Amino acid sequence: MRSFLTIFCLFVCLSWTEANEVSQDFQVVKGANKTYFIHPQKTLFMEGLFICEESGLDLLSIDSEEENKEVTSEVASTGYKTFWTAGVNLNEKGNDWVWLTHKEQSPSAPITYFNWKQGQPTPVTPDSSCILFTKDDLEGTWSNVNCREEHIPICQSYISPI
Ligand SMILES: *[C@@H]1O[C@H](CO)[C@@H](O)[C@H](O)[C@H]1NC(C)=O
């Protein structure tokens, strides 16, 4: 439970800080409704959350099959295969998956669309509570992994409708 609280504390504490300029280091990809910012280095989950937050961005959330397809095709050019999403499990005993995003000023939003890899999610433990996005050829699937693994964080911002 402590690790979840730490994630939340970090998230909530950071949300009080001012949004900075978006770092020049990101590779920027425009999608239909979001702009994606691909960080050039692998990080721990928490570092990814922090890096996005620092630039006034959210870590990646995926809300539909269309978005999952978009991320799958847009990230293809980066040469990386695995990416951090903002998805975490908040319940040690079961499935309570949320996106740690800023949407509607709420620190987390229940995940409604899933695209788990076959055999995933594995039984949730504090060591397998972060959602990783994996691109295999034409497919983008999710798995729950240890938050202390290192992967490329993708940040996002919403493109406001005109
Ligand atoms: C973009 O938003 C429109 C309108 O809500 C939606 O129909 C479409 O599926 C979205 N596209 C992606 C790639 O998420």
What fold name stands as the CATH topology?
Answer: Mannose-Binding Protein A, Chain A
Structure annotation, total helices? 3
Measured between the Cα atoms of the first and last residue, the distance is 42 Å
What would you report as the Rg, rounded to the nearest angstrom?
Answer: 15 Å
Report low-confidence residues grouped into runs of 5 or more: none
Domain tally = 1
What series of H and E elements makes up the topology?
HEEHEHEEEEEE
- Percent of sequence in beta strands: 25-35%
State the name of the first-level CATH class: Alpha Beta
| CATH homology superfamily | Mannose-Binding Protein A, subunit A
Largest sheet: 9 strands, mixed
- The beta-strand count equals 9
The SS-based structural class is alpha+beta
Oligomer: single chain
Overall outline: globular
Bound molecules: 2-acetamido-2-deoxy-beta-D-glucopyranose
Q: What level of helicity do the residues show?
A: 10-25%
Rounded average pLDDT: 85
CATH architecture: Roll
Question: Could you walk me through the main structural features you see in this protein, from its secondary elements to its overall organization?
Answer:
Helix 1 runs parallel beside helix 2. By secondary structure, the protein is an alpha+beta fold. The longest helix has 13 residues. The protein is built from three helices and nine strands. It has one domain: Mannose-Binding Protein A, subunit A (Mannose-Binding Protein A, Chain A, Roll). Strands 1, 2, 3, 4, 5, 6, 7, 8 and 9 form a nine-stranded mixed beta sheet that branches. The chain is globular. Bound molecules: 2-acetamido-2-deoxy-beta-D-glucopyranose. The site of 2-acetamido-2-deoxy-beta-D-glucopyranose (NAG) has 7 residues, from helix 3.
